[in-house]
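#structure-requests
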Amino acid sequence: MIREHEPAPFEQTDGIHNFRDYGGYTVIGGGRVRKGLLFRSGQHMEASEADLELMQRLDIRTIIDLRGSSERSGFPCRRHDDFSAHVIAYDGETSNSPPHEAAGAAKMTAQKARERMIAVYTRMPVNPAMIDMFMRYFEALANREGGSLVHCFAGKDRTGIAASLLLHLLGVHRDDVVAEFLRTNDAPTVHILERQSLPRMLAHYGDIPLEARRNLMGVLPEYIDTYFAEITRDHGSIDTYLAQTLGVDETRKARLIERLVA
């Protein structure tokens, strides 16, 4: 059952897709995830001056960039003149390519798009690069002051899982975790992602049916269900995975709850 919650509106942006606060959710046992500390988005290569001013106003002091080296070099983030946030990034690749742009010669169909995305979520729990980045994400949120922003290319898959794991850890009901994950489909900036991604997708696949585009550029409940099912099968529970694989022991969990739940 989804708890009473008024999600924060998407930030109004000119060149950043899917920018939003993912706090505010009710925590089982009492309290809410604090607003104004946890932000998520897609990449910032086309950020306008107004977008950069927005990030400065939000006091974002830590950026966790889940993209790999080639994505960062191919799509460098714009920065405010007074930018001073600490950026955490991986020295290497975090995925073969953005999943909504992955190369392939065969004509793309809705079913193939869905299967491609399911494969992304099946691999992610054991991807060494993502394990490393998620560990650093939790460490930063536990120890660094001010707001944080986690992002990847589209802000939906790698970023969606990072946000989902944190909300689960803080005690947010599973229905709300999934609802937050699916909010990506309501982002009013999908035109930005299409502008950044669609030309290369069309170059790889030719014409792409609308439903296939939605499966590639949006999210489905079975994507996050696949990720959690893989973890549960291999580790017994999400909490065990967080503790044994991502290093979120009881001390770090308590620190995250103290800092992020009010």
